[in-house]
Amino acid sequence: MLGFRIASAVVAVFLVTGGFLAWKGYSKFHKVFHGTTTVAALSKKTVAPDLLKGEGDGRVNILLLGVGGPGHDGPDLTDTIVVLSVDPVNNTAAMVSIPRDLWVKMPVNYFGSQQKINAAYESGKYHFLGKLDASNGNAAAVQAGFAAADTTLKEVLDVNINYHLLVNFQAFRQAIDAVGGVTVDAPEALIDPTMAWENHNSSILAPAGVQQMDGVKALLYARSRETTSDFARAQRQRQILVALKDKVLTAGTLSNPTKIDGLMNAFGDNVYSDLSSQGATRLVSIMKKVSDTKINSVGLTDEPHKLVTTGRVGTASVVLPIAGAGNYTDIQTYVRSQMPDGYILKEHAPLLVVGITTAGATATAATLTSYGYTVAGTSTTTAPVTQPVIVDRSNGKDPYTLHYLEARYAVKAVKSVPAGVTITPGSAKFVIIEPK
Fold first, then answer.
1. % of the chain residues with pLDDT over 90
2. Which CA distances in Å does 336 have to 56, 96, 361, 372?
3. How large is the average pLDDT for residues 374-403?
4. What is the pLDDT of residue 245?
5. How many domains is the chain partitioned into structurally?
6. Boundary residue ending a domain (300, 315, 338)
7. Based on the domain organization, do 208 and 108 belong to the same domain?
8. pLDDT score recorded for residue 22
9. Residue ranges making up the domain that contains 180
10. What angle do CA 228, 233, 235 make, to 5 degrees?
């Protein structure tokens, strides 16, 4: 039964994109959605640049956590961990899977100072409660669990989490069945003899090709790893997330009060979210515009960007960064490049980076590119520049890029190049001059 929780977070996409959010005034709505605030990036109005603190603040990041729930071994271990990052500006999204066995430092030392990342949520929750309790009746304890998970993910991914969705396996199965199943295109047959007893004594969990899956079948497909790997399973989980999103938005859920009533009754005890009703409704409208081709599926083991590998700590089989235990620099750079700020992408303002050395300018250009900036070129100068300089040549047409650059370098932009600095800016809208 432990494996059931592995895929349970996929139901979170139903809650984010599902039509029942449009059923306004529903009496049981508060049983799932407990939030009271909405981040600036979810505003229906144009977001003023000064409301965004830095690059990435133009996105909405939702942490999807899947647990087994009461009655299962390790009921609060989050064996499914997915960051759903939504770009409301360009109507795109990214899903980042985090290996549950990633060995990390715990922000709350309840079971040990270092554990697998799937213990972060439960450590925070149980530390707050002072005991093991699989129920989610204490909202403050759940939030303490979220905070611990956020702290860990911030260290690994350098991503700020805005909202959370905590889901158990029962909700996952109900969501799939409620929409009449999902359509999945399996790239190859999934054969797992260890799960045959749950699949009418057949070891073929899914043949290759397009097929329909009900809740039970989808759960088997998403949780199997005995004959593949945890990494392959993460890819299948993201695949089902997209399939569920597609089905929800075409299944007539919006116009079916009976489905809504049944789902909310079931989900009330199996799902917890700190999304506000306003934020959730706004996410629905955004996700309706996001086609499958606009959802970037990101894994830390997906070639050619393999950034983690299996290893051992004592007798435990764990996942570690290829760069070395605790070294997340490469992971952060890659994930950041897959989740660029929507306002930076939309403005697409060319930058010229000027450094004291060619190597320095190139390194800065690479960093800015990873954040989504368009670097048109690099140059060098021998002028005695003592602090960063941002030269604004955009004539007010790229206010978000200007705001982010000023926040990054903690200086106000100027209109002209400092005395002694000779450059050819070309088409660059902004010139970044680094000090010695």
1. 56
2. 8, 11, 20, 8
3. 95
4. 77
5. 2
6. 338
7. yes
8. 43
9. 2-338
10. 120
